[in-house]
TrEMBL record, chain A:
PANTHER family: SIGNAL RECOGNITION PARTICLE RECEPTOR SUBUNIT ALPHA. It comes from Rhynchospora breviuscula. It is a peripheral membrane protein. InterPro entries: AAA+_ATPase, Longin-like_dom_sf, P-loop_NTPase, Sig_recog_particle_rcpt_asu_N, Signal_recog_particl_SRP54_hlx, SRP/SRP_N, SRP54_GTPase_dom, SRP54_N_sf. Residues 152-164 have a biased composition (Gly residues). Residues 126-244, 283-306 are annotated as: Disordered. This is SRP54-type proteins GTP-binding domain-containing protein. GO terms for biological process: intracellular protein transport; SRP-dependent cotranslational protein targeting to membrane. Its main location: endoplasmic reticulum. GO terms for cellular component: signal recognition particle receptor complex. The lineage of its organism: Eukaryota, Viridiplantae, Streptophyta, Embryophyta, Tracheophyta. Residues 223-244 have a biased composition (Basic and acidic residues).
From TrEMBL, chain B:
GO terms for biological process: vesicle-mediated transport. Keywords: Endoplasmic reticulum, ER-Golgi transport, GTP-binding, Lipoprotein, Membrane, Myristate, Nucleotide-binding, Receptor, Transmembrane, Transmembrane helix, Transport. The chain crosses the membrane at residues 22-42. It comes from Rhynchospora breviuscula. InterPro entries: P-loop_NTPase (IPR027417), Small_GTP-bd (IPR005225), Small_GTPase_ARF (IPR024156), SRP_receptor_beta_su (IPR019009). It holds the Pfam family SRPRB. It is found in: Endoplasmic reticulum membrane. PROSITE patterns: ARF. This is Signal recognition particle receptor subunit beta. CDD domains: SR_beta. Gene3D superfamilies: P-loop containing nucleotide triphosphate hydrolases. Belongs to the SRP receptor beta subunit family. GO terms for molecular function: GTP binding. The keyword GTP-binding applies.
Amino acid sequence: MLEQLLIFTRGGLVLWSSCRALGNALKGSPIDALIRSCLLEERSADSSFSHESYTLKWAFHNELGLVFVAVYQRILHLLYVDDLLSAVRREFSEIYDPKRINYDDFDEMFRQLQKEAEARAEEMKKLKQSGRVPPVHAKKGGAGQRTLTGIQGNGAKKGTGGGAAKDDSDGDIGNGRLLSNGVDNGMKGTNKSRVASKGKENGAPDTGAFDVNKLKMRSKTGKKGDGEKKLAPTKGEPKKAVKKNRVWDDKPVEESKLDFTDEKGDERMEREVVVVRGESMMDKEEVISSESEGEEEDEVEGAKPEAKKKGWFSSMFKSIAGNSSLEKANLQPALKALKDRLMTKNVAEEIAEKLCESVATSLEGKKLGSFTRVSSTVQTAMEEALLRILTPKRSIDILRDVHAAKEQGRPYVVVFVGVNGVGKSTNLAKVAYWLLQHDVSVMLAACDTFRSGAVEQLRTHARRLQIPIFEKGYEKDPAIVAKEAIQEAARNKSDVVLVDTAGRMQDNEPLMRALSKLINLNNPDLVLFVGEALVGNDAVDQLSKFNQKLADLSTVATARLIDGILLTKFDTIDDKVGAALSMVYISGAPVMFVGCGQSYTDLKKLNVKSIVKTLLK
Amino acid sequence: MELQQLVNQTKQWISEQPVEQIYIAVAVLFITFAFFLILSFLRTSKSNTIVIAGLSGSGKTILFYQLRDGSPHQGTVTSMEPNDDTFVLHSDLSEEKQKKRAVPVHLIDVPGHPRLKPKLDDYLPQAAGLVFTVDAQDFLYNYQAAAEYLYDILTKAIMVKKKIPVLILCNKTDKVTAHSKEFIKKQLEKEIDKLRASRNAISTADVTNEVVLGTPGTLFTFSQCQNKVTEAEASGLTGNISQVEQFIKENIRR
């Protein structure tokens, strides 16, 4: 049953609510969560949004600036919600009046619409049932079973109960066998039906949101060998295998560990002191030049003459005539052009697609202003959307947090994570330099105990910056090294501890587990993901997998995810700045620093307006 | 060629007119131009726009509708767009005597969600006053964010240049656990003092803190600001908004 249907304006006023008596009696204010984490994040093209125990679906009426949201229990799969939402939208827009606030007469209409929608859904279900479409039915049966197993009961027993109840005409599917056998076949049946039903619903969006139920089901099917392959393509090795050293040739394996840690430290190197090389670029203001913009636009216009001319004339005509409302068909060419432009700026394809869809949903049905073309409306909407995404949603003032931690008497811990070769150690040194310039005492922790030369690299930086470094050499457990480093920092009253970790690929299960162990054990204040600006579509994969692994393997209820992004090698890309957008969109974390060179002063903050301008040039 | 002919023709026509008429015509043009210029200056110096800003969830939209309609209707959700309307204050409407003297107020409620913060910059240039709402009940959970937002607002160049008065409104005072306005004021001053220390040389991505607030050596108090900062209490839900209305009336078209 539908919990609530809410109609509100984009400015925030609730116009009508289906359950008036209880007001907002929903637990945890899911509507606010929807607005904050979905609609304002430009994910409004998603089909639904899950929050705790509720699922929410929505529809927009862009012309009048209204939003219609339906809330229902997540374990139910109501099929009539989309239908109901569009019917409600149609009816309400007829009685809507901007001056009017009270819409009590809509109750009757709504009840009628709801009955109609439910009736229609029942009919559809019966049609499908009676027709010879067993896979579809298996999906429904599977969905029912999935929800039942999702509740952590005695999975087999409930599975059999469910299978028996829906076991009308599908003896050929494993459901029939559930009745006779015990646990094993029950699991098999649920496996197969689960695979079929997976394609049906986008319950948990693959944007990093973590669905506890899915994890529990996955861990169950881990026991069953055949289900595992279908369900868990990302799982590399079985859990029990220990990581062995890779042997590339036929040489005999040397069992003695190669640990060339220099116990005394290299005293022969000169003590190179870093004289203050000037202000870190973090503290310099950026001047945005707006002159070059005009020229670029003309060039682009000249480059595509043919396609533009046809569209230009007809849209020009329409725009002067005014009053044509935007339909999806009109938006498509403009959106496609925008999407291509974004992709030439190195934005990941998936992200560009989602963004364009989101902009389309927010523009559909809007009336074009007079003398404006479709393309310019789309451009302004996209510009606003990009500005919204790149504006950080929480404070990125690290110095304030450092001071707050200092008052509490503990060091502020920052962990740098990322894949191989993105520039973690280099940028760690740059951040240390910047902090030093603001009178903050820094300590480095060398938790990259795998790569040869990592500890020496940090040691050199520490020597040049004249700050203490905590190191334990190679082949030690990074989590323990980090823990000890933090204790050492508390002892010698350092304000900040910067922890360097080894680079790791997001698919490497044991390494990701080691990383989450480090984070769980030490509970850092800031988990900074270091990503290079040269990365293309892989940025999406990296960030989402990192976040997912951190969430999956977390030991506490509220998992520590990636808190911020450090974008490196920004000087190597001229204007292909799309990686910043992909990373921010997929993880929701703000870009805290941008590395733009290899010396200590080459660290700056992200200038949102100039990035947006460059992306849409 | 045709252009040349046209120019010659106009020259001839001008020379045919008596000299005084030309002088008079030019003088009239000049006077009307100057007149409009002065009018436009006068008009912008006293606008009737009040901007309501504050963190998400501090009660801005409810306050907006209370001021306009006298009731919070059926409640609100997080705003995605600003609420912008010009109206006569609801309390003014009810008094028959004042109806004729009532001045319409242009009220703008800017969403408090961090991602929509740049929208505030669009409305500040026309503002005659700013109401900064603070949730007095949940103050201790988000006072740092509130202080940061307030600091960002107070250090905007346009605020200092036009000396826009700020009213710090402690909202939700009808709740039992709401803090008093003196407590809130003191906490905010302390936080802003800390922020001054950590922000004095940094330029953030979009907002450049161009102004140093107050006098650097001493503890920060709101009286050190160049624009007038006052505090008040209100309750959006129950309609206890008299102090806000007073602030609005004081600052628009005196």
